[in-house]
Amino acid sequence: MFVPGAGGDIRANLPGGDQKDGFRSGDEADLQWAGMELGAAVMRACARAVVRESLARRPSVYPVRSASVRVELPGKTKPVPAELQAIRVGAFLFLGMPGEPLVDYQFKLETLMGPKAKTFVIGYANGYIGYIPTEAVVKQGGYEGDTSPLAGDAERALLRELEKLASQAMPGK
To answer: N or C end of the chain, less CB within 10 A?
Structure first.
């Protein structure tokens, strides 16, 4: 199973970028290299996968609960409609956002949820509104912050709504 996480500001580690941010676009050879590196990492992970005996001790049924909401997020020029979602599967909590959330959302939501659940941000869920930057990135400027339709205070609204959804998906936690 593949799940796109909060990776709106993740870039391939390609050498030879400019002095400002070290980023450069990749060519065909770079894409082949990145694909081979990813494939090798997947093969290493599979080699360390759970053994048959461990699988036998896992529950055969996991409780599943979900909650979703449509919200108007603060935008730079007008409110931006978005659908947010929380899905709990056993001890795992998946929080869906409609666009490309930056990595800091994963860290902030893990901290917010604490030990209540193993939390994963899911990008590109329920539509697409572009980059979902943090308030700091909007203030700082740059590609993700400048091209996003969201205003800086959208971060607080997103975190507040996702926390509410998480509590609906995890009653009693």
So the answer is: N
Q: How far apart are CA 71 and CA 59, in angstroms?
A: 35
* Cα angle 51-56-60, degrees, rounded to a multiple of 5: 125
Q: Domain locations in the chain?
A: 26-58, 64-169
Q: Is the alpha carbon torsion for 99, 104, 105, 106 positive or negative?
A: positive
The one-character DSSP state at 150 is B
pLDDT per residue over 51-71, tens digit each? 767 777 777 778 899 999 999
Report the C-alpha gap between 173 and 168 in whole angstroms: 10
Give the C-alpha separation, 97 to 85, whole Å.
7
Which pTM does this prediction carry?
0.78
The tens digit of pLDDT for each residue in 131-165 reads: 999 999 999 988 899 999 999 999 999 999 999 99
